[in-house]
Amino acid sequence: MSDPAKHAANPFGKAMIIGMWLGLLGLLTWYFSGFLDAQYNPNQQVATRIDAHGAAETVLQRNRFGHYIATGAINANPVRFLVDTGASDVNIPGDVAEALGLTRGPAHYARTANGTITVYATRLDSVRLGEIEVSNVRASINPHMQGEDILLGMSFLKDLELVQRGDTLLLRQRR
Known about the structure:
Cathepsin D, subunit A, domain 1; 2 domains; four-stranded antiparallel sheet; 26% helix
């Protein structure tokens, strides 16, 4: 006959099994989080080359949602951009602007797809995407914007050449 006490679960063994499952769940979460981040922002490492004429060229890959998302910098602080040729200015969510230490300037109105809103003017010392850098960029702080993505609008893009082919966007800055 078998002894029921022998088959009673060992509390240490249960803790080890629970710990193993939690560790496995944590590893899977970490792996798939990075996988999803890479799908959302395929341009986390932006490569730029200098062409034969001295122009800086950056090629961005479109993400699976059809947007050009890229990691860049504002005033040497890393940020995530969403290229938006329909935006007049670089538009920064209020929380991100606060984290970057940006000063809110005069309030003005902006027309968006969701109607007219109040935003605040600011100037950015530098905006960088790969080796493409623009100084003294007009921007708007938008306290109504959610998330961390900064709309990279025409106040940055206006002096660049943009060429879209297939799933890539070439940005070229003449020097």
